[in-house]
Design brief:
Elements lengths: L4 H19 L6 E6 L2 E7 L2 H4 L6 H15 L7 H6 L3 E7 L3 H9 L4 E6 L23 E3 L4 H12 L34 H8 L30 H5 L2 H4 L9 H10 L20 H19 L6 E3 L5 E3 L1
Parallel strand pairs: 3-4, 4-5
Antiparallel strand pairs: 1-2, 1-3, 6-7
Protein name: Piso0_001912 protein
InterPro entries: APOBEC/CMP_deaminase_Zn-bd (IPR016192), CMP_dCMP_dom (IPR002125), Cytidine_deaminase-like (IPR016193)
Keywords: Hydrolase, Metal-binding, Signal, Zinc
Length: 317
């Protein structure tokens, strides 16, 4: 039996970082780079913060990895880059775009594990097969790990209005709880059958051509996100712990609780359990507003304190 628990565990870290990006009003795509079972770099989308369209999660992580190599007296320039990344695996919540897929190939990455397909710009098989075609060292790319969860975060992001747009577009359908997920990944677009079996295992062979079942950590066993990630694991990754250095000690615990209740469970047959009540970005906003008000209750005089309106928005009174 092929156990994908480690793959799910690593992807859950990337998924949590994507959730952190969502809370920061960034597109919730994130990744980690793993070498010899150690997280050496993390990254999440930074295009809004930097106003730079190239600051995708993968580039953020690559830059951090280069600093890691330098700090450990490992050279990472020119051809040496390919040697350094030869044993590094990328776990990313969304299939790398064409730009990132090309960069990953140029640095000689070992392999990619991703969550959901990138239907518009996928460079690992959905649109183009950059990971296999063209110059540079080819790499294998395996999708479907925490696929629906990765989609759920993206849906939470895209139901929001962009208040920075000249003419903000009002989103009419915000009922993401009622939306079904698109068919599962067409694995033949990314790997051939033999490579599929070498990674996912013989017992998952029917999934190679099946479109209505999700990959699970263990065959014929369901899961929920809360089962595969915990606070101890998050705090064991220095790059994640650093994100909370300037926040109250309870912030990571609070984020983890919200995070774990954002996704549907997956049944033992690989189907999605839509019966669970999940949290959405509107719930996140209400929680953040309540936290802001709690802080103001301590820090501000009464005449400057905020109150919540019926829709959960904070107003000053």
């Amino acid at each position: 039996m092929t156990d994908l628990t480690i793959e799910f565990s690593n992807m859950s870290l990337a998924l949590f970082l994507a959730f952190k990006a969502l809370l920061s009003n960034e597109t919730p795509v994130a990744c980690i780079l793993v070498e010899d079972d150690k997280v050496i770099a993390v990254g999440y989308n930074g295009t809004n913060k930097t106003l730079n369209g190239t600051r995708h999660a993968e580039f953020e992580a690559i830059d951090q990895a280069l600093r890691y190599f330098a700090a450990n007296k490992r050279h990472a320039a020119g051809e040496d880059v390919v040697k350094e990344f030869a044993n590094v695996t990328l776990y990313v919540t969304v299939e790398p775009c064409i730009m990132c897929a090309s960069a990953l190939r140029q640095i000689g990455l070992k392999k990619v594990v991703f969550g959901c397909a990138n239907e518009r710009f996928g460079g690992n098989g959905t649109i183009l097969k950059i990971h296999q075609d063209g110059p540079g060292q080819p790499y294998n790319s395996f999708g479907g790990i925490l696929r629906t969860e990765s989609i759920q975060l993206l849906r939470n992001f895209y139901i929001q209005e962009n208040t920075s747009a000249p003419v903000p577009k009002i989103k009419k359908n915000k009922d993401i709880e009622g939306k079904v997920f698109p068919p599962a990944i067409h694995y033949e677009n990314y790997v051939n059958n033999d490579i599929f079996l070498s990674f996912y295992g013989e017992e998952r062979a029917p999934l190679f051509a099946e479109e209505n079942r999700e990959i699970t950590p263990l065959p014929n066993q369901g899961y929920c996100v809360a089962d595969i990630i915990d606070e101890e694991k998050l705090r064991s990754v220095p790059q994640i712990q650093e994100l909370y250095n300037d926040e109250p000690s309870s912030s990571l615990s609070d984020d983890l609780t919200t995070f774990a209740n954002t996704f549907y469970p997956i049944g033992k047959d690989g189907t999605i359990d839509y019966d669970k009540e999940i949290l959405t970005v509107q719930d996140f906003s209400k929680r953040q507003n309540n936290e802001m008000i709690s802080k103001l209750d301590v820090d501000e005089p009464d005449h400057k304190k905020c109150k919540l309106t019926s829709d959960g928005q904070a107003v000053q009174c």
